[in-house]
Amino acid sequence: xxxxxxxxxxxxxxxxxxxxxxxxxxxxxxxxxxxxxxxxxxxxxxxxxxxxxxxxxxxxxxxxxxxxxxxxxxxxxxxxxxxxxxxxxxx
Length: 91
Prior knowledge:
This protein has 1 helix and no strands.
């Protein structure tokens, strides 16, 4: 990045020149604009990372859900065998 530099000449009759104040305000505005641009770039990078992490977590949740459904179906198919089809043998 290039730095903007201004030479401010001191005026001996007026301790603070209006031009010096103006230049100072311009430099501050440029500095703040650069900081805002850098921060917005960082926010965009962080937002991208969060979105990719959320997408990965959603994939894991979908996989877990399908495994739970499969396990539930297996258990449901075994219940009649475990319960003895609801019949009890009397002796």
